[in-house]
Amino acid sequence: AASGCQCTNMRSSSRLLARVAAPRLGPAAFVGSSSRSIYSVPYSELSVGVPKESASMEKRVGQTPESVAKLVKEGITVKVEAGAGAAADFSDAAYEKAGASVVSRDEAWGASLVTKVMPPTEEEAKLVGDRMLLSFVFPAQNDALVKQLQAQKATVFAMDCIPRTLSRGQAFDALSSQANIAGYRAVIEASGVFGRFFAGQMTAAGKVPPAKVMVLGGGVAGLAAVQTAKNMGAIVKLFDVRAAVEEQAKSMGAEFLKVDFEESGEGGGGYAKEMSAEWHAAAREMLTKQCEDVDIVITTALIPGKKAPVMVTEEMVGKMKAGSVTVDLAASAGGNVETTVPDEMITTPNGVKCIGYTDLNSRLASTSSSLYANNQQKWIAAAGPTTTKEKGVFALDPEDVAVRGMTVLQQGEMMWPWSPPPPPPPPKPPPKEEVVLTEEDYKAMYTESAKKAGYGAAAMLGVGLVSPTAAFSNMFTTFALSGVIGYQVVWGVAHSLHSPLMAVTNAVSGMTAVGGMYTMGGGLVPSTLSETLGFTATAISAVNITGGFLVTKKMLDMFKRPTDPPEFYELYAYPTAGFIGGFGLINLGFPQAASIAATASALGCIGGIAGLASQSTARMGLVSGMSGVSIGIAATIGSLSWPASTYVQLAAAL
Fold first, then answer.
1. Helix boundaries (H) for 276-429
2. DSSP 329-358
3. Which pLDDT does position 36 carry in this prediction?
4. pTM (2 decimals)?
5. Is pLDDT of 190 > 80?
6. What whole-number distance in Å separates Cα of residue 643 and Cα of residue 295?
7. Does residue 173 carry a catalytic annotation?
8. For residue 423, is the peptide bond before it cis, meaning its omega torsion is within 30 degrees of 0?
9. I need a labelling partner for 98 at 20 to 30 A (CA). Which of 27, 118, 206, 346 fits?
């Protein structure tokens, strides 16, 4: 807040929310300006009320003992209505142990910030008065409620209005946390009335095929249903209008269904948009065929502020097999399944059980409450300190997107709907000043380079002075050349190929198998410790070789585009096999053949690493590396004189 600001006393909630800027600013202030209006209250003066939920079948509670303990630790007073958490298995004693006061209904509603799950009723809204409310509100569907709270000059925050594209907003995203539970519970409900195992079984008593589950809608709830059904052993199919969901479906082992009609279903804020009539016609045709095949259909398709689209018609349900199940997670918004009856399970004339429960979260009340309370507690703790950097103060900062996005009303002033301001343009790079180099500058650069060359020459002479034997000098020469070659090979590798390069290098490093092979022996099994270590080294190196090349191929396949020309790298297997076969023939009478084969192997391995420097040569590099390692292993085998039983041991190691 600016220095010298004045605090204005207001009614009721205003005594708790100190206005830290003057004069009072309207909605435009929330767009973000240097002189913004921030309403704040110290934690020591803030009380959080937790009333009991009154909605039918609602068992959740706004705060749990765990979240209460965190609020109390910050210095916030928490008032819990007696019995508020009983339906979710949280006793009054547990709340008291966490530091809350167990109070009457009126006292809980009289707190400065009331935390709930479901939107308040008309009577409950009156109890809020002109204080603060934090709960699900769904302002687009509850216009009368919002107008009532507006008339009362209340301040309202909607848990369902968190900007879902805000990365740190994920901690406050109650829609996602509750949808995740609903998706899981939908599968559990379906399994409870389905007449078979989800996983297939083959027993002496007979064969039981796996259940086939189709999930419509690939949001949080849909993906949770996919994961749960897949974990239970079912064959899972997923359908969504958004193409981006396809990768998520495949990563979870589900088949992604597509409509034979080109139209994007991507909507704003991560939601799906409403599709055209032509697309719906094509989708109905595809879904009708799928309904005839699957055993369980779980629907999760919702469009914010609108009636849920009908995805499964009565005709489709009529074509499902007897004993099949539908679970409609959109039952509260009209339903995706035409036969759905909200809050009931019915059986159609053809024997399909249609579940329309709207209390799936309350069927896991303890877990649902814990996650929801965690969302609320983190939002309360973040409102203020995140942007103002002032700890211990709850503040409504209009420049905090998480606070502004969830604000429906502020002291009776309508703040919803709200669109976040566009991001600021990237800063322009400072103009580069052209540097004009003089002759002396160029001379200084060459002088520095000449000094480094002189240091290198002196170092080489020093090695010559201390070299004890010719063998040492030869090894140093090999080391120096290897270092130069290695540097030149990997210098300038494309960033996207760093991982494939590491994988192929790992495969080439498996040439340590050569050393292991030279220490192997003993016939069918090793007979000494050194032979056992040789066998182990060879086996582990073989894993490195195979795994490295397989991983490299899979990573390079990810870069392959449908428009790329056809490739026939398998043809290089013929010259490699020809070389190995020719080596096998000439090695019998020409002792230097093994040395030449080793050189060919080294060139192939270096070529493999060098080829991974760019996309255009990466696949050729993979083939070169595979050829080099194959020739190296063959050359090593050709230089050995083992009994036949040891070659059997080698085959087992490889």
1. 277-293, 314-318, 365-382, 385-388, 401-406
2. TTGGGT-SBTT--TT-EEE-TTS-EEE--S
3. 62
4. 0.63
5. yes
6. 60
7. yes
8. no
9. 118
Encoded tokens for 324: 């099949």
Is the torsion defined by CA of 135, 136, 137, 139 positive or negative?
positive
In the residue annotation, 410 being an active-site residue is answered as no
Q: How many CA atoms lie within 13 A of 443 on its CB side?
A: 3
User: What digits encode the pLDDT tens for the residues 203-228?
Assistant: 888 889 999 999 999 999 999 999 99
Question: Does the annotation count 271 as an active-site position?
Answer: yes
Give me the catalytic one of 141, 170, 248, 499: 170
Q: What is the pLDDT of residues 493-533, one digit of tens each?
A: 877 788 888 888 888 888 899 999 999 998 899 999 999 99
Both tokens of residue 57?
Answer: 């079948």
* Residue 552: closest CA among 494, 612, 491, 492: 612
Predicted local confidence at residue 266, as pLDDT: 56
Residue 397: phi and psi, rounded to 5, are: -90, 120
Instruction: Provide the token pair at 353.
Output: 């059980």
Sign, CA torsion 248/251/253/256 = positive
Mean pLDDT in residue range 25-45: 60
Rounded CA-CA distance 602/592 in Å is 16
pLDDT at 394: 95
Can you tell me the distance from the alpha carbon of 75 to that of 156, in angstroms, rounded to the nearest whole number? 22
In the predicted model, is pLDDT for residue 122 greater than 50?
yes
Residue of 37, 43, 47, 173 marked catalytic = 173
The answer to whether 320 and 296 are in contact (CB under 8 A) is no
Question: What is the predicted pLDDT for the residue at 5?
Answer: 36
Residue 263 has pLDDT above 80, yes or no: no
- Other C-beta atoms lying within 10 Å of the C-beta of residue 305: 11
Give the Cα separation of 380 and 238 in Å (integer).
36
Helix (H, G, I), strand (E, B) or coil at 207: strand
Q: What is the DSSP letter of 272?
A: B
Catalytic residue among 19, 131, 164, 619: 164
Q: Are 38 and 20 in contact (CB under 8 A)?
A: yes
| % of the chain surpassing 70 pLDDT | 92
Give the DSSP letter string of 94-146: HHHHHTPEEE-HHHHHTSSEEE-SSPP-HHHHHHHTTSEEEE---TTT-HHHH
Helix, strand, coil % (nearest 5) of the chain? Answer: 50, 10, 35
* Per-residue confidence (pLDDT) for residue 265, from 0 to 100: 55
Residue 501, Cβ density class (10 Å: 0-12 exposed, 13-18 middle, ≥19 buried): buried
| Residue whose entry in the numeric block shows the structure tokens 């803030």 | 46
- What DSSP line would sit under 608-640, residue for residue? HHHHTTSHHHHHHHHHHHHHHHHHHHHHHHHT-
Q: If you average pLDDT over residues 90-106, what whole number do you get?
A: 97
